[in-house]
Specification:
It is built from 13 helices and three strands; from the N terminus they run ααααβββααααααααα. The chain has 344 residues and is mainly α. The protein binds zinc ion (ZN). Zinc ion (ZN) binds next to α8 and α9.
Length: 344
Amino acid sequence: MNNHQIPRAVQWFVSSPQYTLLKTWGSSIYQEEEGIEAFVSLFPDRYSANDLAENSKRYNLENAYSCVKDYFSRQYGYQLSSELISNFNRMLNSLQNSGEEKKFIYMDELLQLSIIYFLTTMFIWDDQKEDDRAYGICFKHILGLMNQACIFGDPPSDRMYKEILSLLNGDTHIVDLAESCFWTIITFTLAHEAAHEYMGVMKKLEQKKTLNKVKEEFAADGIAYDMVLRNIMGEGNTPFHLENFTYLAPMMYMDFFDLYYYTDRVLYKKYVMMGDHPTPTDRKNALFKIVQDDKYDFDTEDGNDLYNCFLNSYDLYKDELLLKEQRGKLKAATFTERRNRMDE
Ligand SMILES: [Zn+2]
């Protein structure tokens, strides 16, 4: 038998398990050095490259996941076994999988970069809403983020990053607010996925009937939010503490998805089918109920103020998008053919 008679592409005749797929597909677009360089040149008097490099050793996905592991072992006496994987696969998603091959939690880099970009722009918008130029730029960036990144999976361009960061005018306060909320959202999301592992194992042990999917999503949010609120109150020995004023950041996360679906409806008349997931609004309302419990006791004033600022931008975006749509001013930003191809 010569070589040509032996099959040479057998690997493509089996369906790839999800773990291998997510671990090996896509590539990372994480650029630590470039990010440090950009910030040193943007805020020369404020940050040194060394300080920024030190901070990224401390604030990273692995350490956020350590906080989550620490919480599960303290609160439930349970050691999480999911491996954490993160890559760029153009999916606005995180997930937990307990398949045959291996337990893992996957968080796409697209989700991470979209959240930090979103928060930064929303806070700048509220801060500079009286300035017509800044107002227009912020609207354009939230629209661009929702339309290009969330719907189509294209990260913002270099030019977009430069434009939004230049609006900061050296104001590091907004960066700090956005980053603090970002880490709360990341930790919340990892804890939500970890809760799926935990609940899955418990169900097997107790031979309980499976919760229905919607109930399981609410339960995972409940565990994740408990983790965040306890961290805020200073419980646990974690690599980093989440700030008081970020306690409503998980609500901003729900609003982020809400604006994404809203944009899809306005531009493309698409209605996202939630399937077995509750809507972002239902999840947000459930989170508000949790935080009212007396066992969570900390100062909420700054957090409420920050969420109100966020909601100002949220309302501005919704109104502005609809108004522009009615006036036919969104044609250049509407890629209907490309959007339709995604549903095929
Ligand atoms: Zn879930």
